[in-house]
Known about the structure:
Elements: H1 2-37, E1 43-45, E2 48-53, H2 58-70, H3 75-80, E3 84-85, E4 90-94, H4 100-107, E5 113-115, H5 126-129, H6 133-137, E6 142-143, E7 148-152, H7 162-169, E8 174-179, H8 182-199, H9 207-211, H10 224-228, H11 231-238, E9 247-251, H12 252-257, H13 259-269, E10 281-284, E11 289-293, E12 299-300, H14 315-336
Parallel strand pairs: 4-7, 4-8, 5-7, 8-9
Antiparallel strand pairs: 1-2, 3-6, 10-11, 11-12
Helix pairs in contact: 1-2, 11-14
Amino acid sequence: MLFKQQVLLRQKLFVLGSLAVGSLLYIVARVGSLDRLQPTCPIEGQFGDQEQIMLRALQYKRGLSHDLRKGNVTKEQIRLHNMVQQLPQAIIIGVRKGGTRALLEMLNLHPAVVKASQEIHFFDNDENYAKGIEWYRKKMPFSYPYQITIEKSPAYFITEEVPERIYKMNSSIKLLIIVREPTTRAISDYTQVLEGKERKNKTYYKFEKLAIDPTTCEVNTKYKAVRTSIYTKHLERWLKYFPIEQFHIVDGDRLITEPLPELQLVEKFLNLPPRISQYNLYFNATRGFYCLRFNIVFNKCLAGSKGRIHPEVDPMVVNKLHKFFHPFNQKFYQITGRTFSWPYK
């Protein structure tokens, strides 16, 4: 008799537990759906004090964007939601291995930002550019009129034709440049190429052999990884078309260790209301990087290829590169109005 009572008690507890879990899941789903249906308070838009932006919940934006990528949304639904494919109002133009992907993904935390998922290479690729501006527009994600579309293609920063081409599309566009300490960035650039060679079982020169000219024992400016890190040379070409006020410099080294202040500066530059908070960023000790928290359900970390371990480089070569980049860095600080504690010896 006692055994039967225990069995009945266990069954009741199991049923009650199942009901409790089911109720909790329903509440979570219900809260998510209410967030999707109800816009938050209107705020000032990025296009002037007269325009008000209605910021829908981030869950709704992400859910609909997912459906669009999967082809699960009809043209009628897009029309009803007043969604369009907009040309970007801001572009992350570089720098390669400066943290462009991390910056784009972090900005995508903001409900008024939508991102192009892939590097489009419209302005730096002659074949793509010949396809015309409508081809470029159709590569953009669907968005609400109040949202900012952002794309990133790091090759833009160092490609000569790009500033004029972007100017012809939109002379008032906002341009984001994320930089790291130049020597570290060059070694990171080398590391990515080295990893690609190793995957194909190919040999590759050591960094020291590429960065230093063996005949002169001076820094080899013909080596692309070195040339890309001379930020001021590339920026000067852009300044022929755009005033410095249309650029914002992001500290890529600080974005790794302390991302929120950098993201808040970008929000301000883009005239966006402050929406990204510490809640959205959590440090993953295993990865050694900050990961992204979109809501109580959805988290995201950057791809495993980010944060590669750099090979050891001869300290004498590192010092030589520090000294080489120093005068260019000083000019970069002067032009941009932003100073970094980059070593010079």
